[in-house]
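seq as requested:
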Amino acid sequence: MRKKIYALVDCNNFYVSCERVFHASLRARPVIVLSNNDGCVVARSNEVKKLGIKMGQPIFECEELIRKHNIQIFSSNYSLYADMSARVMKVLSQFSSRLEVYSIDEAFLDLSEQIIDDLSEFGRTIKARVLQFTGIPVSIGIASTKCLTKVANEIVKKDARYEGVLDFTALSEQATDEMLAKVAIEDVWGIGSKYSLFLMNHGILSAKDLKYADEKWIRRYLTVVGERIVLELRGTACIPLEAERPAKKGIMCSKSFGRDVTRLEELEEIIATYTARAAEKLRSQDSLTSCITVFIRTNALKDTPQYSNSFSQRIPYPTAFTPELIRYALKVLRAMYRDGYNYKKAGVFLTKIIPQDGVQPDLFSEFSLYDYYKQARLMYLIDAINKMYGRDTLFFAVQGITRPWKMRQSRLSGHFTTRWSDILTIN
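C-alpha cells:
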C-alpha cells in the first residue's frame, strides 16, 4: 500500500485577494473586507495585519488608522467570492481526481496515487496555475497526513523563504520537529480554544509537545478526536479525505437587518427571502425537508423593549418547493409576531432533511408524485435562470422588491463574474 500524501491549498487572504483581482491598483495597498452590515473586519491584507488591526475588530475602532494609512474598505461580496472559489476548485481538480473542498478558500488534494518526483516543484506548478487562471495567490502545505499539511501551511504563510510551498515529506524527523515547535498549540488543526487552554495548563504549548504527549492521557481528556490529531502529527493518516461532502442535516439562513424592523409586512418579506435562500441550499444538495423553524429577535444591545421567539412547524410531506416552504414559514411568523418591538434579526432553519430520491408516495395524501415532479421541474428552471443571470432574476413577490431592510453593504464591489452588467470592459 502506497504511503498517503496530501496537499492543502489555502487561498491567501481570500476575500481581499478576490477584490484585488478586479482592482489592480490595490495589489500593494492595505485592504479590509467587512462583515454583514459593514460591522467588523473579516478579511485583511498583509499590509493591514502589520498595522495591528485584528480579525473581528469593529470598524469604528479602526477609523484613525484607516484615515492615516488610506486603507481601502469593501463590503463582503459573497456572490463574487463563491464564484471565485468555484474557479479555484476547478483548477485544483486538474491536479487530482480526489479533491476535498474543505471551505470556501481551502481544499485538500490526495496525491497518493500519483508518481511525482519533486513534490515541491509540483506544488509550485499548482500555485502558478491557480494564479494564472484565477488571479488568486495560494499557499500549499504537503505532508503524509491532513493535520501535518495544516501545520505546513501555517508555517509557509509566515515565512517568505518557502515561497508559498512547504513539503514535509522531504524533511527529516528532526527537521519536522523543529517546524512543529514553531506552531502554537492553539494553531493546531482541531484543537479549539477550550482544549488549547487545557493543554497549555498542562505544559503542552506547541504542536511538537502534542506530538509526543501520552496517547492514553490525550484520549482520556481530548477523546478519540484528540488521539487522532496526535497520531496525525506523528505521520499516521487517521483523518480520511472526504471527496464528497455528506448532505447537511440542517440548513440555516439568518442575518441581522440593515435597520430595525417593526412592521409585520416587512418581517414577512424577510422571512420569505430567507426561506427562499434556504430552499436553494436544500435543492443544491438534492434534498427535501419536512420541518421548518422560524425565529425573530430584537436588538439585545439596545435599551429598548426586548422580545425573541422561535417556533417549528412540521410539514405533512417532504418538500423543497419554495412557495410551500414560504407558506409554512409565514404561518409560523404570524403566530409569534408581537407588535410594538424593534426587530433586528430573524432566521429560518430547515431540519428533518432526507434525500430527494427518498420521497415515498402516500396513498391517503392529496399530494401525488406527479405534483412533486411538477414542482421539482419548476424550481429547477428558476434555479437555472438565477444561476445564469444572477440571484433574484426570478423571485417571489412576497419577498418584496425594494427591501429597505437588507443588510448594509455600502462599499460593495461589482459582481464581476456573475452579472453581465458588471463585467469589466477594456478600452
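The first strand starts at residue 6 and ends at 11.
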